Amino acid sequence: MKITGAQVFEARGAFVERDLYLDGAILTDHDCGGEVLDAAGCFAIPGLTDVHFHGAKGFDFSDGDADGLAAIAEYELSRGVTQICPAGMTLLPEQLEKICAVAAAHRAAKRGGADLSGINLEGPFLSMGKKGAQNGDWLQAPDVALLRRLEEISGGLVKLVSVAPELPGALEFIQAAADEVTVSVAHTEADYDTAMAAFAAGAGQVTHLYNAMKPFTHRAPGVVGAAFDTPDCRVELICDGVHIHPAVVRATFKLFGADRVILISDTMRAAGMEDGEYTLGGQAVTKRGKHATLADGTLAGSVTDLMGCLKTAVSFGVPLADAVRAAAVNPARAIGIYSRCGSLDSGKRANVVLLDRDLNIRHVIFRGEVVS
């Protein structure tokens, strides 16, 4: 296949009008013949990677439901998210084991939809004081043995684990885990010094920056300031128009630079569904428009998929190339899959999304096939 006429995203952070060549499921640098797809007036971007979301279309990864995971993967692919790393909530160990087993079986069976590229363990090693929508009854101290058991059950799919670094044993946990998975600072009451100690121990990411942590202030910069002072640290940002003010989104891209921001959706099962009553981590959630909240008003994830978050970021004034880098390049790097996807370079997987000038999806091309 050849795609002609599009403004093609380049990994260096620019758009260039050029032809894209697909040799089956792989991008190549020469014309292999076959179908020609006219993409004049479109942007061609890599398929996105969502490293932090919980569910969609009425299903949640934490359910441990094989058919539900398949439905989630199909929905994400329809929205231009070609690689997924779904997140579990704070759950009991036996349920964490179940979702890891279901994920491993899903991958082994090569079920349809977006590629299951990893698992994100958002809980249970989090702070009670900043638990947000996590179930406080199931929080526990960091446990390397549990992490490794989940890694084994999942067949190596665990790519991210969140931890509150002020918890007893957290720094030792980070030191032990950092060579195996990406450790992300999350749901934490840590101050600047504690966060810096976590990054020195090997943590390399921050889960949904600003949310479920102390604020960034001029005398107490907290996790945000510590992340900025750690050049290799990437930060997740929920850009759904609800969690983060537009001015803060713009400021974050300026502060950290487009190479360090990872756009995430943090969607829960109500994404792609009508307003109504749903659940997250065993807790009742109400969806009204773009808002998903617990009974006490606590935000309970998002209902805006990652492509919607990318579009929202651009509407806030983030350059399109920077938003694409944050939604495609950086998350792929964060979970170790950038060698095969996340850009439109020759040799990468032929996962391409064509967007019109209003950033609406025109086509999703997955493994070299037009799927929508």
TrEMBL record:
InterPro entries: Amidohydro-rel, GlcNAc_6-P_deAcase, Metal-dep_hydrolase_composite, Metal_Hydrolase. Coiled coil: none annotated. Substrate binds at residues 133, 211-212, 219, 243, 299-301. The keyword Metal-binding applies. CDD domains: NagA. Residues 44-371 form the Amidohydrolase-related domain. Binds 1 divalent metal cation per subunit. Its EC number is 3.5.1.25. Keywords: Carbohydrate metabolism, Hydrolase, Metal-binding. Zn(2+) binds at residues 122, 187, 208. Belongs to the metallo-dependent hydrolases superfamily. NagA family. This is N-acetylglucosamine-6-phosphate deacetylase.
